[in-house]
Amino acid sequence: MADGRAAVKRRINPRLWLSGGWLMILVIAALAAPLLAPQDPLAQDLFASRLPPLWQAGAEPGFPLGTDSLGRDVLSRVLYGARVALIVALIAGSCTCVLGAGLGLVAGYYRGWPDMVISRLIEIWMAFPPVLFAILLIAVMGTGLTSIIVAIVVIDWTRFARVIRAEAMSQGAMDYVASAKVAGRGRFGIILREILPNVLPTIVVLLTLEMGIAVIVEAILGFVNLSISSDDPTWGSMIAEGRAAIHHSWWVLVFPLITLFLTVLSFSQLGEGLKDHFDPVLR
Amino acid sequence: MSFLELKNLDAHVGRLPILRDVSLQVAPGEVRALVGESGAGKSMIGKAILGTLPDAILVTGGQILLEGEDLQRMRAKDRRRLIGAKAALIPQDPLTALNPARRVGPQICNRLVDILGWRRQEAEARVVELLHEVHIPAPDRVMRAYPHELSGGMRQRILIASAFAAEPQLIVADEPTTALDVTVQKQILRLIRDLQARHGTALLFVTHDLGVVSKLCQSMTVLYGGKVIEDTSVDQFFRAPGHAYSAALLAATPKYTDPDSSLMPVPEAVISAVEAEIAAHDAAHQKGAV
User: Fold this and answer.
1) What is the CATH number of the domain that holds A245?
2) Model pTM?
3) Which residue of B45, B102, B223, B264 has the fewest CB atoms within a 10 Å radius of its CB?
């Protein structure tokens, strides 16, 4: 009988709220950046260079988080940087997820030669150092948003493929898969209807984790000046500029760094929270 | 005419024989037991019929005839469709046999709808009716539940209902009570027997429990090492087993009525005689193949 187990309702996780809240703020900030930003993020003003943030002596209104050595407004640049970061997180994250999870499911359920091919590919792929691989790819393809996204997908699909392959394998050995087979479902139908719903919690966790990683990779590429064109603000290039000026204007480094940190942390926490939400046994 | 017939079925993992020249028949509405020790190949026969053998195990010879049609020679898709319509499985472990990520009702209904082309309302009504038949008190609530919210006995009832839902002519029950505790076992067996009698379904009952065989089945096939040792009626088996191994198997059944009796393992001599028979069979087979 549907007993007490059905009646247990889990409290909604505070970390789901906190991480989701931060990411929500970030999305709104990115969408409304032209409205919210107090200055043009590209406008240089050498008379207003290295202004401190609002609460320090010598600050000027209109530059709430101060300015960098070229007089560009830090807050505006962080806001516009969020656009690049979120676009990369969403597109690169989902493409990586679809490619990696798809290959993982096929390898894990079909076994046999598809598994052989995909597993060997994963092993060879993982022998490359990922960041060098990404830099190499961008050197070949040229800088730009598409190149960054392609580089992330190409270096990171193995993360999904490995984990999902193992999960699909263990799910494929369950009796419910045998029952579905007897009932006449084809292989593709079994993957979609029987196995996918059971690996979905893992996919969700990996996806959000991957979005965080995509943000970091984009920042690293920005740091070594291989992100989008060097004029456009990205968190990575801001951190690189701020690093040079750390002794006289800490704010140029610290604000993008904090934003980056909170964003990556929120993505991973969101994943954990959502996993509990997606898993019928934990729900 | 028999509904299901296996003719000289051979199966191998690499060069290791799993099934050796297995022949058996199941008439419409017949309840046949497949008995034997662990590793005798009884589950493998069920899996070979339903097409769920592990990839490593290959059927290397013989025929599986369902209503006279050879399953081995059909295209995979046609075979799947035929089996889906005519046969069903009651699995061993109810805890892993329901998809944990999907609600019970849609899970059972979808198979009827997607695979056999029923209309959704028809399928739902049918499933509710069957849940009643397996004595589930509040079918509507159970249909909305996730498998982990239900007890093991409850889940096995659902699986039985699901097996009978499409009115199959053959059900393979692979030790359906092994994972359940003894008090529930009895209810589940009675349930299977009642439904089988009411629906006139042929049942292939894989088990190592001779007590269950005596209560449930009419005919039985005794297996050892993937080879048929004896094919007999249940009455005959319990009165006068036709093979030394069958007799030893029967003697090895613990007797609850006599608390002082000790367990009687199958004697070494009987085992070695059976092993010799199998070795002779393999040798003859190899000669035949060359």
Assistant:
1) 1.10.3720.10
2) 0.81
3) B264
